[in-house]
User: Fold these one by one.
Assistant:
Number 1:
Amino acid sequence: MNRNVVISFGLHAFLVIITAMSLPFLAKKPIDLPPIISVELIQITDKTNIPFAPKAKKIIEKIKEKEKKLVSEQAPPKMVKKEKQDSIPLPDEKIKKIKEIKEEKQNPEKVETEIKQVSEFEKKDLFDTSSISALIDKSKVENAETNKKTDKITQDQDEKIDFGGLSLSEEDALKAQIFGCWSIPLGLPYSKNLLVRIKLQLKPDGSIIQSEILDHARMNKPGQEFYKVLAESALRAIKLCQPLRVPSTGYEKWKELQLNFDAREMLEG
Amino acid sequence: MLFRYLLIVLIILPIKAFALIEVDITRGNLNPLPVAVSPLSIDEKSKSNFKKILKKEDLGSEISAVVENNLRQSGLFNPLNKNAFLQKPDIANLKPRFEDWNLIKAQALITGKVTFVDEKLRVEFRLWDVLAGKEMMALAFTTVPSNWRRVGHIITDKVYQRLTGEDGYFDTRIIYVSEKGPKTNRIKKLAIMDQDGFNNKFLTLGNELVLTPRFSPTNQMVTYLSYFRNLPRVYLLDIETGMQEVVGDFPGMTFAPRFSPDGKKIIMSFAKDGNSDIYTMDLENRIVERITNHPSIDTSPSYSPDGKYITFNSDRSGYQQIYVMNSSGKNVKRISFGNGIYGTPVWSPRGDLIAFTKLHKGKFYIGVMRTDGTGERLLTENFYQEAPSWSPNGRVLIFYRETKTNSKGEGFSAKLWSIDLTGYNEKMVNTETDASDPSWSSLLSN
């Protein structure tokens, strides 16, 4: 009898302990939720990136090149870490030179954000209005696409995010560059469906290996003069812009790009 | 197992790898396209021949100057300064060194050659895409030497068409009422000139008052209104032959005769029994047909380019507004609903817009709206301006603008102005005298 009581007591005690141990985990879950949201925010900021990131990248690349020349050909090609580079035995004057260049051209904050993973608060500080507008623009496009098309698109978009899409800031940098180069033919009628899709093959430095108009057959069809004019203007823009402002990394992702030139918004506006 | 796994990976990998990144380019710059207009090359023999006939030192440069001026006036192109050109015209015409033209930021290049062949002027020209490094177009014209300005206009039309996709409007003429003298005693003559203001000619002597000349959309005929012994008469004038005829005497006030799109009818308004309505007249049999029958004042009719509709203004709603109806006069619909008074509606040759004059709070506006009255856009505002007329491609409007007189009655002037649909490229058109009531011809080379 006593034995049974002891077993029962032991099992009950075991259950109480298990419950006591597992309940706090259950209770913690909602507490864990905010960090998930904040993670999303971080992801977005990563995608949007800070507006001067491309500039910083450029500067880093420049410095890389200079350092390559100054230090040796065996200098690490990708990661730029100041301390390590400084520690490489160099003549004092050369070290000074590098430092001077960094001080003149680089905003130290910018470089930090580019190289290191800064904390969430720092990122929030760097998040400016232009990147907000970029976010809004992007969401507009995405919304429009999802409204028009089926679930396939969402999958594609997921693929973009997960596998190989440009980040919003990278896309914005590329767009901004082409906006400046593209002289829109003003005589085009805005009622017509004029969308020119051009597939590009790019070199790692952003220069163009090959450009191909995807609806090339339309170019020489009678009655498609406006399309031809638009396609030619788009090709001119690409040639004028090259080398394109592409990300410094992930060449495999963007070595092939499709640019969709659509002048309707401008012509209507 | 490992083999299976590898197989799956190999199948999935290419799908992932081919996920092409797409970037939508929805904005660009609306700056005029930089174009280099190289002087047309000319050999010494041809140069001296043309110098004898036309008194022009270098006809090649003169023609390229016409092209350059046209392109600049259009507002869509930015002809680059010739001093920056690195390549000589004769070599550029054979094979341009695209790097040189790229260096001065030219996106398109025009080259050409002028020769004197069998007492005639032969001009060949080429349009090059500088960035693509290829020829876009090559054409040659032969004509009498005195037509050299028209050759410049035709070249501009071809270049404009190739680079914008729409027809040009440079090889055209403008008919207008030339005005001289004090405001109270103006001498008004009918005059015609090229669209760039050159080759001005007076068609009437100024003895009679002339009003509202209008070009036929199909040929070089003009209809206008003139007062003979204080009675309005509608005239028909053939610009090519100079032949003029009276189409008819009409009772009371007659307004603004205008051709139908096929050029076979004239549409106008006149007052019969004290009531202004819209009428058409068949030019072959001279039969007059009444189109509107309303106690209000209906004036300023203008056909749509397909001839199916007519726009006009009427005060049937209390104020003068714009209406659209079938060409038979049925289905009358008011399309202007904004504040103010609307008048002189003119249907665009493209068919998509109606241009009008608007009076609101003492200011005159030239504007456009869609044919259903939506999308009203006011292009220009001034003290007094009216009578818009479309360029044949429906991109530019020409109208006239009057200035205020001072307390002594001085300072009055009337000039022609043009503005394109963007509302930005507003320019005064040079005329020898004061000018009003312009009308744009169709393309001469058609």
Number 2:
Amino acid sequence: MDIRPPRWADKFLVWFCNPELLEEIQGDAHELYFERVSKEGKKIADWKYIWDIIRFFRWSNIRRSNDEFRPGYFGVLWNLNVKIALRHAFRNKLIFSVKMLALSVCLAFAFVVSAFVIHEFTYDNFHQRHDKIFRVGAKVEIAGVATNYAISPLALADGVDEELPDVENVCRVMYTGKPVFTIEDKSFTDQTTLAASSDLFNVFSFEFIRGSKDALAEPNKIVLTQSMAKKFFGDAEAFQQTIDLPWTQLEVAGVIKDVPSNSHLKFDALISWDTYDFYDGWDNLNAYTYVQLGEHADENDFYNRIAELFRNHQEDIEGDRQLAASDKLKISPIMENIMDIHLSEYRDEDIAQKRSKTNVYILIVVVILFFATGLINFLNLSLAEQTTNFRRIGILQVFGGTSANHGKLILTNILITVFVIAPISTFLINAALLTAESYFSLYIDKSVFTSTPFILVAGAVVLAFIFSTRINLFILSRSNDIINALKGKFNSRQSGFQVRELLVATQLSFSIIMIAIIVIIVDQFRFMNSVDRGFDDKNTIVIKMRGGNFSEAETFQESLRKLTGIKKVDGSSFYLDIIETKELFEVETKEGRKKMLVAYMNCGYEYLDAIGIKISKGRNFDKSHGSDNFGAYIVNETAAKYFGWKDPIGKKIWGPMGTDRDEGEVVGVIRDFNFASLHNKVEPLIIFPIAEGWGIEYVYIKTDPIRPSNLISQIEAEYKKAYSNFPMEWEYLDSKYQSLYKEDYEIRDIFQVGLVISIFVSCLGIFSISAFLVIVRAKEMGIRKVIGAHPLHLFALHMKRFIKFIFISIVIASPAIYYLSQHWLSNFAYHIEITAWYFIAPALITLVIVLITAGYHGIKNSRVNPVDILKYE
Amino acid sequence: MVTKGNYLGEFEELVLLSVASLVDDAYGVSIMQYIEQEAGRKVNISAVHEVLKRLQRKGYLKSKMGGATQERGGRRKRFFLLTVSGKKTLEEAMKLKLQLYKQVPDFSLKLT
């Protein structure tokens, strides 16, 4: 048997031990070991050996660096190195400050964007059991058309609770709109309020300041967020105060900390579920249901059992929607982990804040580009600087400096860089966060900066930075360059050059990518603004009606029509961005009556005119046709196509089912109009007139372009007369429309800032490289001029190199531009096509920038006086 | 190097004496075993090494590497020898002790 001491202990000894002492120490230890093996057995010998090794692990035996007394050593000549670096910085003030500024700007920007990206990826991870919390939505299939809903039947929560044992907690939440809260005599209307069952606080980990987890167990309780409590009650204690709703009185049963910015569920107040009298059936598809599974529960298994639960309640789900056997309604669950909700695909009726994954990925590319640009620029400049310092390095090497010594010099430079950059970037990051918050309404919680992913990213960047500076060392320590330097030769074909060319080209191609993408984004927005949306959102004011009582609203509208400056007023149920409602209609088709789930809107007689929706066939609703009120429908072109109608006028429609409307016929077809954003395709739509029982939810007011400046306050006065209890809520339709693109505008803003920085940094890079080139090639230029070269020729010679950079960078950038823009544009149902121009234009822009920045030195170069240069020797 | 004067510590003295008596065969393990056998004291090998290093720094010991060996994987031993100054220091220390010992009146009587 092969008897030997524990291998790892032996390795450990070899690793730490001073090589000069190793042989005797290891020898003694081994001798003892083998003696013990024969006397006391292997096991005891092993342990004693380990103990010996541990005892040997002491300061006097530990291996340490042996260049303690060589020049340039950290401790000894530290101050000298710092001095050299500082002196160097002061001598090249311009390049030094350019270098530092560019690097800190790039880093700050990249850090802010990566904080944002991390923020997006860590949605809902603050809940303690986030990996076990799921939201159950519903996929509803009727007549082969599937719709993915974020919501599920109200009865699901109870069903899960009763029939599936390994679910730890289940809660349901329902969006209740923005109710009017009255406290003493003040009203508040702009609070996102949810009805929530008591278990919400067991599923989610929202932190309580006052009150406890069972705050919502009883009816007529409300839980406020901290900032809402402050808004409602000022500095007074909010806990156990009362708040009035129009129909009941609530008691504040708890105050929680504000909902973190990375929560998909955003709310200002929660009202206990039992306060409302919701219809609790399987056919009421309206609640957001969250389940928290047990520790060992399997989610696939759970999914199957929920699907089964849905199947068992098939009849209940269908409810009183009598369906023909052919178009069976099928419903299956959609289960999403709460952390995925933020970035997952679109679901109907979702209250979650969503962001498309593509946009986040594009931002990751931006981060990488920026780290790289900043780094490359820094490397480039310090490389250029050091190449001019070849002579100093040469002398250092002659005096016995090793490349390790030179490395220490560079390390000193890095440390100084870090000392300069850290405060600047911290300042810039804070400034950027403030700007983002106040101008772009992008709020990033500061805690992101202390989260593990961010620290990892930052650490990786710092490491990359330190290692990349080693590239310089590698290039510089080539001996023949140094010999040449000492001989006073400055060869413009030096080896450092090819590397530098590559670096500059990469940096330039980043700028081209940035420019191209921003051009595409801006163009897409221009396209979206110019595209025919099918309605006119200019000069339109929308008022949200409370209660929506039909006759009250009619009187209010009538009073508005009398005001000067108002062209048309009418009501509608439809609004941008509201969660759209689809209902079951029966439609006459070739195959007979068919049930279909179609979006609908109802509106007043003048509504279509008021916002400029054009009738393409047939007629508008008309008051003179007495039967219109309950017997007329208008459909959009997409709907006509969807139903397979060649001649839609006179076709029959029944529904929406379960309402007071029954049979009617189509009187007109409108041009498609896109009420949702252009991210989505136009969907089939059925329109019918508002009638008594339906209420008016939104009043649209079309004003004259030239209107009295106090029109809004006049309208407000009328509103006050009609509804004295509520403040008026209104918006301009066009600004609302713009807000649908909030996310895209955010991306555009980030890119615009990025573009400016990227161009700025690469300008700096090119400027200093061309300055360096002028120095390196000064003698050559002088001689050329003596021989008789034309200044223009010299200028061209100087510029030639930069033109080459541009060509290389176009080659690098083009595929990236193509890939990224395709990705981004695929977000839009209606988008521009990528043409060659999107590649040529950025290249031309970059060309101009390069010509200007490099041209300065080019002109200087061509006007050089040869005597000044050549008299040197 | 900083040393604690030219005094010998108790353990140092023991090691120095062992080296002196082992003559040509004084290396780490043998010294340790000698101490164990003669003084009945269990010491760790690393402690012996430490003291040997210290004594060498003070100039009381010199060392040389021996030839290749069989029992320790071919690794050489470092043999220690007393230097002149080591010998002198040892003698002085012994003399001092003996002198002090003799001055104790009726030392042997007191013990019994």
Number 3:
Amino acid sequence: MLNRISTYFYQRPKLVLALFLAPPMLYMLVVYLGSLFSLLINGFYSIDDFTGIIVREFTMRTYTQVFNITNREIVFRTATMALVVTIVDALIAFPLAYYIAKFASPRLKTWLLIAVTIPLWSSYLVRVYAWKLILAKEGILSWFINLFNLTGALEWLLGLPGIGGSSLSLSPIGMFIVFVYIWLPYMIIPIQTALERVPGSLLEASSDLGARPSQTFRTVILPLAFPGVVAGSIFTFSLTLGDFIIPLTLGNSKFFIGQAVYSYQGTGGNIPLAAAMTMGPVVIMVLYLLIARRLGAFDAI
Amino acid sequence: MMNNPSAPAIRFDKVSRHFGEVKAVDLVDLEVGDGEFFSMLGPSGSGKTTCLRMIAGFDRPTSGKIHLYGQDVSSLPPYERNVNTVFQDYALFPHMNVEANIAYGLMVKNVARQERIKHVEEMLELVQLSGFAGRKPSQLSGGQRQRVALARALINHPKVLLLDEPLGALDLKLRQQMQIELKAIQKRVGITFIFVTHDQEEAITMSDRIAVFNQGKIEQIGSPSDIYERPASSFVAGFVGTSNLVGGEIAKRTTGSEQTFSIRPEKIHIGSMSDNPASGMISLDGVIRDVIYLGLFTRYLIETEDGVDLVVVEQNLKSTSMDVLSAKGHKVRLSWHQDHISRVGG
């Protein structure tokens, strides 16, 4: 009997493939794309300003609201933060990933990779609150800065319009520091993986043919690591775009997208506007991926 | 003293390279002449590749000096040595097409684009790949990649070209064809080639001279015929071709000295028991224990009266497989010319 079943499947490879692929495909279609579609639709509903009840009739009113001056500023502020966080993460991650991939001994490599990923083992919330304390006015960081007599520099930094505040934990600068810290592993790992796949002989060949180290970096290492940088930046960029815990915990009263969505659907009860706001990051990410493809980031995949 | 054209292309002066406790290269002295096709032959881990890497500059000697046309290059980085390498895995840049790969050496030296294109075309012609400039390395076969790697290394007109087992990844037919082609290209460009290989046949076919490496030291340096016909040590006799090593009692009885000697399987003649050895011939009686028919020739395993096994190879000039296979168990009289033995000491 078992024999006959296995023979039956052996003769029908396409059926086997369909059986294996059906559950994940269904999940993707229904749960993943379905909820995305539901968000899109909800944005076309609106809220009755007087009663607070959702009116399930097609209208462009809610999406128009996304483009009012307040929300435009929120989207711009969030996208700028995401961009700066991504660039700084890439700059910090690259040398570290390069060292792990190309210089560290196998033993050291294991330890460094553990060190990079260990923060991910603890709760994200705990780490954000820890940073809130570190960056607080009486926190360990200001204590350190005081120790080096740099309080003046810190005060100057906090006095900058737009990004300053009364303390690091209550300023966009502090928020930026925490974002950079929180998403750094998501940038290191893809770059390290990309560099790991670059054979050492390519670097030797470049040097052999007369390229100085800086030329080898520009013409061989960077182009071959670029897909990894893009993969990492997709993480750091999209995670920053959608995050609401860090803007809630740190920084000033100025809203970020995730925070706005959180308050619209929670305290505001304006689910249609929350849904419409969510489409902001989705559109930005699609544009981002299109640009990345244009730059040849996916050629190697 | 900068480049001295009368100095040897490469000179090793007591060069050692240690990796911790391991002596990968141990006090090697070596000279390679201008325009020579020089092979470094040896099993893996014998130090030949480390020597090549030290010439290229990827590795530095722990002690000793390396001279390139009289100039001490021991501590120069690879990009300041006029030496280029063809890598075992070709190491072509996957994100560049054939043209950009070959032009790389000129590009990093800021040679104008027009001139680069002209030189690339010459190189493509030299390696018979005209018309492939636009292809990516992933669209080429193994043999074509090999040619691109060669063109890329030659475009800089290096003083010495280093080849690190460049034919290892090719199949037999292609390898034989590339052997001939490499040799022809070397003649045309007149550059000193240093060729690392573990394939003794390849080394013998292509080289002007061969250095046989073993455990970080050079066992013997000489022309292919020197190495094959007069191996200086039992290691060389065993590594380059097959050889019978005979020592002790039989050595004393047949040659008058207990010193071990080597005799090549094809130099031994199998005769009948009634044969009388001519003058200058050494003879031994034995029994054919095993026969392996190999088409072009037959390999016999013969046990001598003293209990020593000798391998003998004979061409199948007149005999068929039926004839040779039926010889198993026969008593035979072996003989060889005394000049064909080589004392290997020990």
Number 4:
Amino acid sequence: MFQTGLQLATRMTRIGVYVCHCGLNIAGTVDVEKVAEYAKTLLDIVVAKHYTYMCSEPGQCMIQDDIKALKLDRIVIATCSPRMHEETFRKTVAEAGLNPYLLEIVNLREHVSWPHSEEPEKATEKAKALVRMGVARVKLLEPLEKRRVSIFKDVLVVGGGIAGIQASLDLANAGFKVYLVEKAPSIGGRMAQLDKTFPTLDCSACILTPRMVDVAKHPNVTLLTNSEVESVKGFVGNYEVAIVKKPRYVDGDKCVGCELCTKVCPVKVPDKFNERLGKTRAISIYSSHAVPKVATIDPDFCLRLKTKKKDVCGKCAQACEAKAINFEQQPETVQLKIGGVIIAVGSEVFDASRMPEYGYGRFPNVISNIEFERISDASGPTNGKILSPKTGQPPRTVVFVQCVGSRDKRFHEYCCRVGCMVSLKQAILVREKMGRDVNIYVCFNDLRSFGKGYEEFYRRARDLDINFVAGIPSDVRMASDGSLYFDVFERGTSKLLEMQSDMVVLANGLVPSSDITEINELFHASRSADGFLLEAHPKLRPLECSTAGIFLAGACQGPKDIPDTVAQASGAAAKAMDLLASGEIELEPLKAVVDEDLCSGCRVCESLCPFSAIEIKREAKIDEEKLRAEVIEAMCQGCGLCSAACPTGAIKIQQYSNKQVLAQVDAALTETKTKGGN
Amino acid sequence: MSLIDSMSMAKPNLKTRSKILAKLRGRDLVNCFQCIKCTSGCTALKLLELKPHEIEKLVNLGLVDELMSSDIIWTCVTCLKCVQRCPQKASPYHVIIALRNLAVEREAKIPEEFMKKVSQILETGLAESMQKVTTRKMETCDRESLKLPKLAGPKESFQAAFMKALEER
């Protein structure tokens, strides 16, 4: 009989409960009719209905009609995960004139019907309890408004491989200003190292180099090579980024790329671009088609820079007619204000020396697939002639071994998605370059030729008399002349074959770039179990991070071939345009709010906040000394860390206040049989 | 039955299969994707025709009865190469040992040499029996002629523990 003021107030609410069947996804396990009937017995429920698909147009119309006809002011929808359709239903209730935040989603699919499909009766009881909790909470929800903030429109693209180049070009052509940051002295990335590309056998350089030049010349693109992102502050639409330009010790504006310096430099250095198969000099241009074509001095090898003495060497400076060499160059920091980031840092190639059974690193004639690309490339160390690294002679037999480091629980469980096609392409290149006399074998596990034109490419390889051996060798051994021999059990013939080969090419998989840990920390871009960057949703949001304003392109998100990389890059660019085009963005109102009277200024929240959204300010009005936390609205993502840690309970997350959560707990602890939700 | 070996008319024995899977405790036989790396490197293949990948597949299909009574499971020399190399951690070695243990439980035909070895270990405590050695001068020596001390037999506690281990299998 006794009612507190709060209960009296909540008595006024008019709640509608809608239970979704989700086809048979929910209704197959949960007795939805019973759940709706049960909802009717709860306090303040004006209407409770169930329907096959609440998210369908008739379902949504039903809710809207009820809101108008029955003057509902709170809605509970028992359906799939809020991650799936919360946004849909918010729009539904908003269109009917209700504040979209007076809606509570109860998850009956992921939380009930799917995990409890074996126990339908208990599942129905759990569904009832969850609905009861939802009703208890919805009564205490407060109307909220979305926040609009203005944003910067420039975009930062991290990584100058084909993904970064494509994304930059798309954005720049659409009128956005782009900063393209590349760690290496030249853009181009992995694709620049490749000889030909599957399945068309286009020359990689021929299709990539024009793009590299385009992006460098584009008036909307600022190219920052030999540079790395140092720090990132801010939030979606309002990032402040610091980028460090590492010293090249060469003035980029003066250098004409004549390579006179390289000719006189006395220090030989393993050539990174050629996978260390050849030598370059301590001052060199990164590759023959480098963009920008500017020399760079490697400070780890240069005699002058190593000794730091002014009278040492200096031959390059004497040879340079443009006077471009500057041993005094210092790192330079560039500050940028940008709206969105496209991460395109790519991947690395698996280090096969971790698998001792193949002898990579010990046997010179066992090479990786990326090394083969350099050997086969006309600009590579052998000028495109396929020669065995040990003897310098053309091999008579070449064997490709598939799935190295991939599909292997000891290293990487995932399929590298390119190894099969790369080996097919390389086998075809060997046949084309060396003719009919050379024996080519591919030792495979499953041959995966899944893309457009790929199966036809596999067919082409078989037409060219490339032999496919169904079986993976267990250990490779080297004979005294450097040739290799090993046993393979062939599953088609059930025979143990002893194979001899002058060259073994390992189909090394793709692994996350070594920079990915840093990227993960800088941009709050989470990673999936395989170590690559995690997309917001594997199917519906594959181009973006769960952190707003960060987009993903290319192999940093997962192993990818060139067509997929370019497609994803264009997609990510379009996503960034979508976000930034209007010049302002809408933010969810689910943010932290500080109760000024309770805040003691202890700074716990400030140190915990992963988005640096809390500032400690002096309370000028009352007391000069008193510190107080203030939430920077636009930066707060509503994660709730501060709220959980606050010792005085001063910080709350809107829509998740203690009162609202405890009402749910109370409802959870009430027996199903008793009437009423509270 | 969904599957029959049309050569021997054998049917899958799923009970035994799940018994073997239980014995493997996490070494995931079911993950074998037949890359055949194990057989490519098998030490016992050339002499004894052991094809570990076939054993993996047969057990996965449930065709275990014939396997258990066959000699082939006793030819593994336990070099453990397949355990190290298997990309799916499905190690045929552990499957073979599980098959051997089941064969013993079922009192199936076990190669004589194995039982001899077991009784030898029980009696002498040694895996290899003491042998006579022929020198370059074609003299035959044993421990006694070399005046080496006599080896003591195994302790009773060892024998008891050994018997207990056998029974637990």
